[in-house]
Design brief:
Layout (H helix, E strand, L loop, with lengths): L19 H31 L6 H28 L16 H12 L2 H34 L8 E3 L5 E3 L6 H86 L4 H29 L2 H6 L1 H11 L4 E6 L6 H20 L6 E9 L5 E9 L12 H11 L3 E5 L6 E8 L3
Parallel strand pairs: 3-4
Antiparallel strand pairs: 1-2, 4-5, 5-7, 6-7
Helix pairs in contact: 1-2, 1-4, 1-5, 2-4, 2-5, 4-5, 5-6, 5-10, 8-9, 9-10
Catalytic activity: ATP + protein L-histidine = ADP + protein N-phospho-L-histidine
EC number: 2.7.13.3
GO molecular function: ATP binding; phosphorelay sensor kinase activity; protein dimerization activity
Length: about 425
C-alpha cells in the first residue's frame, strides 16, 4: 500500500533539477498572461466591493472570485510541483460537514484561511513579477546587441535601449550591458526556482505532515472502535453461549455429587453429561478465541489459516491465495479477520450457495507491498455497514491497520468485499 530514514507514506522533497528551459518558458507566460489574470481579478474584486450593497450582487461576484483564486492556487501548486518534481499534495477543498447554509459558510471560512492557498497565490504573484522583469531584461538585451553593431553603419551616434546616446565608436561596449541583462534573465530563473521550491515545498511538507496526522487519527479511531466492537462481541458470545453452558455444567456436577452415594448410576450419567458439556464449552471457547486471533497464523501463515476458515465454512469456498512471502502479524491478522467475517456474513445473511476468496501480494506506486484480498459470494446482496455489525468490525480492523476497504453489494447480489492492507516496514 523502505528505508529506515523515511517513514512510510512520506515523500522526501528531493533537490529539483535546474530545467532552465522550462522555467524560462513558464516565466515568459506568467510575465504576460499572469499580470492580465491579476488585473482581471483585482477588477472583479473592486466590482464586487462596489456592488456589495446592490441587492447582494457583489457577494456573488466576490464568491466567484474566491473560487477562481482557489483554482488558481491549485494550478500554481501543480505547476511548480510538475516543473521541479516536488511531491506536493494537491490543494483540496474542505467540504462542508453539515448539509445546511451554516455548514456551507463554515466550509467557505475554512477554505478562506487555507494557508496553502494563500502561499500558492503569493508564489504566483512573485513568479509573474519575475517573469515581467525577465521579459524586460530580454528586450533590453536584444536592443543592446543590435545597437552594438552600429559601427557597421554610417551613424555617428546610437541611442541605447535605456535612452542614452553614445558615440558609435563606443557602441561595441554595449555588449557588456547586454551580458548584464542576460545575467538578470538567468538570475530570475534561479530566483524563481529557489523561491518556488521554498514556498511550495514548505506547503508540501506541511500538507504531508497534516495528512500523516489525519491518517494516524483515523487509524487510532478505527483501532478504538474495533476494540470496542470486539469487546462487545466477546461479551455477547460469553453471555449467550459459554456462560450458560458453564452454569449448566456446574449444576449437573452438583447433582452428580448429591447422588454419587445413593444413586451411582444416575450420578454416572450426570457426569457423562457434564463431560460432554465440558467438551462443547471448550469448542465454543476455541471458536471465540479464534475470532480474536488465529494461532495458526503465527505457525503456518495466512494461507493455512484461511484454509482452516474455508474448511469450517457452512458454504463451499473456493480459495486462491498466492503470497510469495509472509507479511507482518498485524497485516495478516487484519486480512484474516476481514475474510473470516466476510465468509461468516455470506453464510448467515446473504443466502449464498458458494463463495470465492482471492488473496494477492501487490506493490503500490511507491513500491511498498500490501496484501489485497477479495471475498465474493452469489447471495442476495444488500449488505450495508451498520454500527456494531460485521462489516463495521471489518472496516475498523482494516482502517486501524492502515488499509482500505470497498464493499459492492447491490440489491439482488452478488456481494464483493475488497480490502487492501499495507505491510509494515
Amino acid at each position: 500500500m523502505t528505508s529506515t530514514s523515511t517513514p512510510p507514506g512520506t515523500h522526501p522533497i528531493s533537490r529539483p533539477p535546474l530545467r532552465l528551459g522550462l522555467t524560462l518558458l513558464h516565466l515568459a507566460v506568467l510575465g504576460t498572461l499572469g499580470w492580465a489574470v491579476i488585473g482581471l481579478l483585482l477588477g472583479a474584486i473592486g466590482l464586487g466591493l462596489g456592488m456589495l450593497f446592490l441587492l447582494g450582487l457583489g457577494a456573488i461576484v466576490l464568491l466567484g472570485v474566491f473560487y477562481v483564486l482557489f483554482g488558481l492556487a491549485w494550478l500554481e501548486i501543480e505547476r511548480v510541483a510538475s516543473l521541479y518534481d516536488i511531491p506536493a499534495h494537491p490543494l483540496n477543498w474542505y467540504p462542508r460537514t453539515e448539509a445546511t447554509f451554516g455548514g456551507y459558510l463554515r466550509s467557505l471560512g475554512a477554505n478562506f484561511v487555507h494557508g496553502r492557498m494563500w502561499a500558492a497565490l503569493g508564489n504566483f504573484v512573485l513568479a509573474s513579477l519575475m517573469g515581467a522583469v525577465m521579459i524586460g531584461a530580454f528586450r533590453y538585451m536584444i536592443a543592446l546587441i543590435i545597437a552594438a553593431f552600429t559601427p557597421l553603419t554610417d551613424a555617428e551616434t546610437v541611442t541605447t535601449a535605456f535612452g542614452i546616446h553614445v558615440e558609435s565608436s563606443y557602441a561595441p561596449l554595449l555588449v557588456l550591458l547586454a551580458l548584464v541583462c542576460a545575467g538578470v534573465i538567468v538570475g530570475m530563473l534561479f530566483l524563481h526556482r529557489t523561491i518556488a521550491t521554498a514556498i511550495i515545498g514548505a506547503t508540501a511538507r506541511e500538507s504531508d505532515l497534516t495528512e500523516r496526522v489525519r491518517t494516524t487519527a483515523v487509524q487510532r479511531e478505527g483501532a478504538m472502535r474495533a476494540a470496542e466492537v470486539e469487546r462487545t462481541r466477546i461479551e455477547r458470545d460469553l453471555h449467550d453461549g459459554v456462560q450458560p453452558r458453564l452454569v449448566s455444567l456446574g449444576m449437573t456436577l452438583g447433582l452428580a455429587k448429591q447422588h454419587i452415594d445413593d444413586q451411582p448410576e444416575q450420578a454416572k450419567e450426570l457426569i457423562d453429561e457434564a463431560h460432554t458439556s465440558t467438551k462443547a464449552a471448550i469448542t465454543e471457547l476455541r471458536q471465540l478465541t479464534r475470532g480474536i486471533y488465529a494461532s495458526v497464523l503465527d505457525d503456518r501463515g495466512l494461507d493455512a489459516a484461511l484454509s482452516a476458515v474455508a474448511g469450517r465454512s457452512h458454504i463451499p469456498v473456493s480459495l486462491d491465495v498466492r503470497l510469495p512471502y509472509r507479511c507482518d502479524r498485524a497485516t495478516e491478522a487484519a486480512v484474516y479477520f476481514a475474510i473470516a467475517e466476510g465468509l461468516t456474513n455470506a453464510a448467515k445473511h446473504s443466502r449464498a450457495s458458494e463463495a470465492r476468496v482471492t488473496v494477492r501480494m501487490r506493490d503500490d506506486e511507491t513500491g511498498r507491498p500490501y496484501i489485497w484480498a477479495r471475498v465474493e459470494d452469489n447471495g442476495t446482496g444488500g449488505a450495508r455497514v451498520v454500527p456494531g455489525g460485521g462489516l463495521d468490525g471489518i472496516t475498523n480492523r482494516v482502517v486501524a491497520a492502515g488499509g482500505t476497504i470497498q464493499v459492492d453489494s447491490p440489491a439482488g447480489g452478488p456481494t464483493a468485499l475488497e480490502v487492501s492492507v499495507p505491510c509494515a516496514s
